[in-house]
């Protein structure tokens, strides 16, 4: 049994070591503008500081696990920066009998029970959930941050710090009195899977990344300096993200070389303290192209053995490895079709190799033929995911997750929800959202995507068709596995953060990463709540700043849509080049299938069952009825589902062509309006970010005019119909 003296010495050592750790974590970051993103922990105003100083100034850890230590360091760092007060730290496996005094207590529910058998939240915490609770422990007022797991404790700490940073009252606590006795907030994540994907190439470039080079790779190797990778993991953890796939889905087989796995292990080491599981994208042909076999046929036993050995090797180096992401038979990537096998054959052979270690396979539903015959009006790329995967429902192992893009084409500014969400009932699924703004302005245009994502996630697929008035299958519940009682599922975001000081190439674009994490945690949060949180954390609580930035962000998707791609028309950006500039004809007359079918008579893809490609027939019956009928189809998706003449009258009362003219002029005006809105907060935020962002809005205003003029000219050229307001056409008064 250790002596009292040795316990005290150990405790003192733990305190000093933790304080040193916290300081090391704090200093270099603070100097970098933008790098802190929403984790700025600025000094609180005197009133809020006075209130929060009533928190105990001692923190007790109920265990000494790595993630719990991170939680404590983050708490110490946050409170020190915001309140200017250092926390006293006790890191020990506290015994029931020796616990005394006021403290912030960090631990899992299991450890908390040792301390007090009566303390338990109203609903049992499972997985990564957390509970913030003020309670008396052995007579002393304490604030408990408990988790279902260590990771849950870390998320609870971030939630507490977020509340304090926003000088918001913690749930049920009166800010005026901060009556600790009433603090009681329990949160449970909506789904197990809350992952990001990075499309980083091993040479250091990031496909569709607009925030500089890779934070993981350079010149074919893992970077020697992984400081940014660790900071990325911290950002991810702060919004509840628990997994990160570090390399491009167009995967280089070399990622699975023994020597590379060794290097990748170093990235896992900087993720681990933050509870972020590392995973890899893999090329299905790896057993052949780098593994020495003469085949990669998923049904060949040698191939199964190869994947098994590879998985074992990875888990030896990375015991908490998350699993693999697979893009196959897509955009030129090899896949099971080479051997006449199915995606289920391919996914399962890998899943079985991962299964003993607890790993999962994300098999992407983005499988399509990019050599479609565009002459054939029945061909339709939108049908591909459902056609390929629906027949295989039930054939995938239970550690396979089908990763489905939000819409059936490819991250366009407006698409309906993919019918595959409703097409899989005996298979796990996850929604794939694109945080990096490939088709939505590449971070050079403001486009806050949470309102768009929410429309898709809230869309009711009517999977049971029981009652017309009750939602029975919103996409968020389908992917979370709640409708068909699946063992796993959830949310994946393609993030593509890079080495730029502000991570994404634009400080305002970071709202999309924040929003993704918050929605993955709780898709029922409103866009207004999410952007309010982000703005306060990133720019502080000045009411004018909050009002201005939240209003701009919330309107930005519609503004961008109105000058780039209204009425669900599809791809008007240049698809053969940068996916950014206007290039409305580039999507036509080629095999990629991002067609809008605009000609001199009309515009839009006829996807009806009656006369078109039949795509609408992939939805459950009630949804089919909504989209099949011209009369019911919502204006904003009209051209996605129907081919109509330019003079067709919308529900709004405008003709299609007039809508296109008006929306482009209105959108460009609103983009110009962003400049004056932003100027209104001059002097209310720091000069550096003010100027940087002002220049971006001035650029965007110019680009919106470029878009407006290009699309209006194009549509006028096709339709020959002049703008009623005289802005477009031969008699244009412009
Ligand atoms: C990584 C789109 C992008 C590609 C991307 C692909 C995918 O086509 O333009 O860069 O490839 O989607 O999601 O696999």
Write out key terms for the chains shown.
734 residues, alpha/beta, eight-stranded parallel barrel, six-stranded mixed sheet, 37% helix, globular, disordered N terminus, binds 4-O-methyl-alpha-D-glucopyranuronic acid
Give me the secondary-structure topology.
Blueprint: H1 4-30, H2 46-52, E1 58-61, H3 66-83, E2 88-91, E3 103-108, H4 109-115, E4 130-137, E5 140-147, H5 150-165, E6 184-187, E7 193-197, E8 217-218, E9 221-222, H6 227-238, E10 243-245, H7 258-271, E11 277-282, H8 286-289, H9 301-317, E12 323-326, H10 343-354, E13 360-364, H11 384-389, E14 400-405, H12 420-423, E15 428-434, H13 450-458, H14 475-479, E16 490-494, H15 510-521, H16 527-539, H17 543-564, E17 602-603, H18 621-628, H19 638-641, E18 644-645, H20 656-679, H21 687-719
Parallel strand pairs: 1-2, 1-3, 3-5, 7-10, 7-16, 10-11, 11-12, 12-13, 13-14, 14-15, 15-16
Antiparallel strand pairs: 4-5, 4-6, 8-9, 17-18
Helix pairs in contact: 1-3, 3-5, 9-10, 15-16, 16-17, 17-20, 20-21
The structure holds 4-O-methyl-alpha-D-glucopyranuronic acid.
What integer is the average pLDDT?
92
As laid out across the biggest beta sheet, the strand order is: 7-10-11-12-13-14-15-16
The DSSP helix count reads: 21
Listed once per kind, the bound small molecules are: 4-O-methyl-alpha-D-glucopyranuronic acid
Largest sheet: 8 strands, parallel, barrel
Distance between the termini: 89 Å
Low-confidence stretches: 1-32, 169-173
Portion in helices: 25-40%
Specify the overall morphology: globular
Task: Tell me the β content.
Answer: 5-15%
- Counting DSSP E segments of at least 2 residues, the number of strands comes to 18
Q: Any idea what the radius of gyration is? A: 27 Å
Class per helix and strand makeup: alpha/beta
